[in-house]
């Protein structure tokens, strides 16, 4: 008989990333019942219309478009550069910042408005003090083969 395992990882890197009971990761936000604005994570007051306690939890899409990006050449020690930091507008609402992967960090290769998918991968081998790994989210241009991981 297999023994029950005590480990609980992988852990989401940010509070607005959740892992369903099925093990499927997703992004969580909230939407305003009054004005239908969508925000990343949880809040009690709508930043658009000011409604209080009118925000309900919403599972965000894993599809979006590239709104803006920046190629980062200098970062914290230990972080490999260059990499592409991007802001993506998600389908159905919500904007999120993260890293665009699977693309050369070259402005000639990256177009604004490109359709992207949110993908979930191990967070660069980082672990907590109990040895649990972290799961992070990244953006990948749609239509790219997933085999590049
Ligand atoms: Zn609102």
Structure in words:
This protein is mainly β. The chain is 0% helix and 46% strand. The protein is built from no helices and 10 strands. The radius of gyration is 17 Å and the shape is globular. The mean pLDDT is 90. Zinc ion is lined by residues 32, 34-35, 37, 46, 48-49, 51.
What attributes does this structure have?
10 strands; 4-stranded antiparallel sheet; 149 residues; mainly beta; globular; 5-stranded mixed β-barrel; 0% helix; binds zinc ion
Would you kindly provide a brief summary of this structure?
By secondary structure, the chain is mainly β.
Assign the structural class, choosing from mainly alpha, mainly beta, alpha/beta, alpha+beta, or little secondary structure: mainly beta
Query: What's the order of the H and E elements?
Result: EEEEEEEEEE
Summed up, the helix count is 0
Cα shape: globular
Bound molecules: zinc ion
Percentage of residues in strands: over 45%
**Cα gyration radius (Å):** 17 Å
Low-pLDDT parts are none
């Amino acid at each position: 008989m297999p023994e029950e395992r005590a480990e609980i990882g992988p852990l989401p890197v940010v509070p607005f990333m959740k892992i369903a009971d099925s093990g499927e990761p997703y992004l969580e936000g909230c939407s305003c019942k009054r004005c239908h604005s969508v925000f990343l994570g949880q809040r009690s007051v709508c930043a658009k219309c000011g409604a209080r306690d009118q925000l309900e939890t919403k599972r965000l899409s894993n599809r979006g478009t590239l709104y803006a990006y920046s190629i980062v050449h200098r970062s914290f020690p230990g972080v490999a550069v260059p990499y592409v930091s991007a802001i993506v507008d998600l389908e159905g609402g919500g904007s999120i910042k993260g890293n665009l992967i699977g693309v050369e960090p070259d402005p000639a290769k990256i177009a604004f408005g490109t359709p992207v998918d949110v993908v979930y991968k191990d967070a660069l081998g980082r672990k907590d003090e109990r040895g649990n790994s972290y799961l992070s989210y990244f953006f990948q241009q749609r239509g790219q083969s997933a085999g590049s991981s």
